[in-house]
Design goal:
Layout lengths: L6 H7 L2 H7 L2 H4 L8 H7 L2 E5 L2 E8 L2 E8 L5 E8 L4 H7 L5 H11 L4 E5 L2 E5 L5 E7 L2 E8 L5 H14 L1
Antiparallel strand pairs: 1-2, 2-3, 3-4, 4-8, 5-6, 6-7, 7-8
Length: about 170
């Protein structure tokens, strides 16, 4: 990855397959691209502050990257990518995570066992690194809507998803 990229450019060029496998943005991007909280806020398209948290949003055509940090600059808590439209940029970035079917095939190729959860109008896959990949039915297939990076342990995430799936 080009070391002269801004954070926004680097996030735009990130493969979503790399993100799913890496678990967090911090594991997927070179360390010299990570910014101080003030620099990150300056590059973000939107900044939301609530209850001691700061959510930085980097907007792109068809998707957004969200980084949640503590307001007092003590570091990043978690990150996620939201997809709302299947644009050319999304198709290129998503690769084999674009549809639930291609994700399942890719997991088999990688030798990864996934947990799948069916909820109301949503299908969620839990990866061994605690990343969750979310799909909604669109155009007669399940299309990517969100990837939530690793935040809690695999066991805690699995327990939460089981509880939510029972309630839907």
């Amino acid at each position: 990855m080009d070391r002269n990229l801004t954070m926004k450019e680097a996030l735009r060029s990130l493969s979503l397959e790399t993100y799913v496998q890496g678990g967090t943005l911090a594991r997927c991007l070179p360390t010299d691209l990570w910014l101080t909280p003030g620099q990150a806020v300056a590059q973000a398209d939107e900044v939301w502050r609530d209850g001691g948290l700061e959510v930085l949003t980097f907007n792109y055509e068809g998707f957004a990257v969200n980084v949640t940090m503590q307001q007092q600059g003590s570091g990043q808590l978690f990150d996620s990518i939201d997809v709302w439209d299947v644009t050319d940029d999304v198709i290129v970035a998503a690769g084999r995570v674009l549809t639930a079917q291609t994700l399942e095939q890719w997991a088999v190729e990688c030798g990864v066992s996934l947990h799948r959860f069916e909820m109301v109008e949503e299908r969620v896959y839990l990866w061994p690194n605690a990343v969750t990949v979310h799909y909604r039915p669109q155009h007669e297939q399940w299309l990517l809507t969100k990837i939530a990076g690793t935040y809690r342990s695999y066991e805690d995430t699995l327990a939460s998803l089981r509880l939510m799936a029972r309630g839907s």
